[in-house]
Design goal:
The protein has 205 residues and is of the alpha/beta class. It is built from seven helices and eight strands, in the order H-E-E-E-H-E-H-E-H-E-E-H-E-H-H. It is globular, with a radius of gyration of 17 Å.
């Protein structure tokens, strides 16, 4: 085997072992949803960005989830209040058609609010886990067959609803309170570098 073949094999191995985001459109009925895919697996995590973000918001964390055996589908939506159900519907149907055995929702800020609102509108047990980063939602989640993980910075005024929502929510649930003031996932990870490992552990329970 010559050096060129060795280098080619090495590059291929690196590409396979890392989560290179694959960009594609999900088409369901009249909905066309822009999406990024990280990894493969039959537990699909649908990721929902916040206001003034796009489906690339999870780029720094997709590889970590892929290596843990999860498939992350990060979708674009308008991030307007009351919007997003059509896009999540399309992503859920797509994941089911692709063979997903478990579905979870992950959102940040307004995306966390969408995840909570959408899950409440579905039958209990439709989703394995809800991961809610810096949610702006103050309503409880009554689902008893869905795990709920609330994560926020204590001094983040935009996410000060999170403890209230967690208190109102049914078990099983977990609240992670961090000591920062920043809003969004990167601000949370800045306070706890291994935060995504906590999220992955929650998904695996």
């Amino acid at each position: 085997m010559n050096l060129r073949n060795l280098l080619f094999g090495f590059v291929c191995a690196v590409l396979v072992s890392s989560a290179i985001a694959q960009e594609f459109d999900i088409k369901q009925g009249d909905a066309v949803v822009s999406a990024l895919n990280y990894g493969q697996g039959d537990h699909v995590v649908i990721a929902l960005h916040g206001y003034q973000q796009n489906n690339n918001f999870f780029k720094d964390y997709g590889d970590e989830f892929a290596k843990a055996g999860f498939r992350v589908i990060s979708i674009g939506w308008s991030a307007d209040r009351g919007a997003g159900f059509k896009e999540v519907d399309a992503a859920v149907k797509f994941a089911r058609e692709q063979g997903a055995k478990k579905l979870s929702l992950l959102g940040t800020s307004r995306g966390a609010e969408l995840a909570a609102n959408y899950a409440r509108a579905q039958p209990d047990g439709e989703f394995d886990t809800l991961i809610l980063f810096a949610s702006i939602d103050d309503q409880g989640i009554p689902l008893t067959k869905t795990k709920k993980l609330f994560i926020f910075n204590k001094y983040d005024s935009k996410a000060n609803w999170t403890p209230t929502a967690a208190d109102k929510s049914a078990e099983p649930k977990q609240l992670i309170e961090l000591g920062g003031s920043g809003h969004g996932i990167s601000a949370l990870v800045a306070k706890k570098a291994d935060l995504m490992q906590d999220v992955i552990a929650a998904l695996k329970r």
